[in-house]
Specification:
7-stranded parallel sheet, alpha/beta, 13 helices, two-stranded parallel sheet
């Protein structure tokens, strides 16, 4: 029975010196919130004669929708000054209802704009960024989850600006491995899909159509399809996970071939979403950073204000991707 299983797990945890299962925290909507710490802040972006100002002025005339502005990301100044931008395709309405996300949801969003891949490619080519992250809402209403739309967008961007580095941050495409393959073979540089949280907390945090095993399988298949492709994932912290659970998630990602990891603090978007269980201190993020590098990740960004696309281009623009492109020419 379930009660017997829980008792067995609790006894096992006690014997191993780990936190008992019934003591592990679970995030809830409307749950108690710890006070926000004083160190959780970021400087205002911008200033005269900065790349941030140049990009902000240019984007408004290009009909590009950036996650950076629409989500009011705290790192917009760092990323734009570093030449990285994140744009959305496939509309602004998601078919899933994850409990941490404030995006609009609907079972049948409007159909995709067939001209969007070319329009986005033209706009990005003019925008002036070196590295672009393309992301979207989940589109379970589409046969391939939107993978073909992503692939066309990548191909058109590369055709117009071959030196542009492209990362796609995508859904799990409902576990459709053919969809994963079509995007992995499109010419992109980084295939990103977020696991979001540790395995135990998946049903409390993500939509029921998403799960830990499916996400790991998608990441692994992308790497198997295109071994030279960099793969990337992200985890939100502060939802009740334990240190051991975070480390296990890292090990599972490495077993799936994930190269890059970002870890950031979960921040509740509205009172109708999951409450923060804990504000993870900077020193714990640093400990996670050290552990991740020790088990073979090529790069990790870990900190309270880190997000999936945080300074995404920095590492690659200065090293691996440019070196690879130079070697292939």
């Amino acid at each position: 029975s379930r009660s017997a299983l829980m008792l067995s797990l609790a006894v096992t945890c006690a014997c191993l010196g780990a936190t008992p299962v019934d003591k592990l925290a679970i995030p809830r909507v409307g749950g108690p919130m710890p006070p926000r710490p004083s160190w959780l802040h970021v400087p205002a972006p911008g200033g005269s004669n900065t790349r941030f100002e140049d990009l902000r002025e240019s984007i408004h005339g290009l009909d590009l929708h950036t996650v950076c502005e629409e989500a009011q990301c705290p790192n917009i100044g760092e990323c734009w000054n570093g030449g990285t931008g994140t744009i959305m395709v496939l509309g602004d309405t998601c078919t899933r209802g994850c409990k941490f996300c404030a995006v609009n949801t609907e079972s049948t969003p409007p159909p995709p704009d067939e001209d969007e891949p070319m329009n986005v490619a033209k706009a990005v080519a003019q925008w002036g960024v070196d590295y672009v992250v393309v992301t979207s809402v989940d589109r379970d209403d589409l046969p391939d989850g939107g993978a073909g739309h992503f692939a066309r967008t990548v191909q058109m961007m590369k055709a117009l600006k071959p030196e542009l580095l492209v990362e796609c941050l995508v859904s799990d495409f409902r576990g459709d491995l053919a969809a994963v393959e079509s995007l992995a073979n499109s010419g992109l540089d980084v295939y990103a899909h977020n696991v979001e949280t540790v395995e135990r907390l998946q049903p409390y945090v993500r939509d029921r159509r998403a799960n830990y095993e499916q996400s790991m399988r998608v990441l692994q298949h992308a790497k198997e399809t295109a071994p030279d492709l960099y793969t990337k994932s992200s985890v939100m912290l502060g939802l009740g996970e334990s240190v051991d659970e975070v480390k296990q998630t890292m090990r599972d990602m490495r077993a799936a071939g994930v190269d890059i990891l970002t870890l950031g603090q979960y921040l509740r978007p509205t009172e109708h979403h999951l409450s923060v269980v804990e504000y993870v201190p900077p020193e714990q993020f640093e400990a996670y950073n050290e552990y991740a590098m020790s088990i073979g990740f090529e790069y990790i960004a870990a900190g309270p204000l880190v997000r999936s696309s945080y300074r995404a281009g920095e590492f690659f623009l200065e090293s691996k991707l440019k070196a690879r492109k130079a070697a292939s020419t």
